[in-house]
Predict the 3D structure of the following.
Amino acid sequence: MKANFLSRKTHRWIALLVGIQAVFWMVSGAYMATIDIDFIHGDPLVKNVNKPLPEDISGLYPMSAVLDRYPQSKAINMVSRLGIRIMWSIQKQEKHYLMRATVS
């Protein structure tokens, strides 16, 4: 008698937990199906702060100076950080360096 009562009570609690999980699963699935996926990913919250690099590069370190300083480099790129600071991105074997590109 006691085992029968215990199994019914245990079954009831397990069913309640599984039922709650199934309800959460269905609600989240309905949300994912009805709301735009770009909104779910948070794309509207991302602000693009990258600005194009300036065409006038007279106040920047020349590429030859960067090559002289890092002769064993694999790749050198000019990048803009936060749309404010222009930098040289230098990859050398396993390491990666950032060097300010402005002279002043």
Notes: The mean pLDDT is 82.
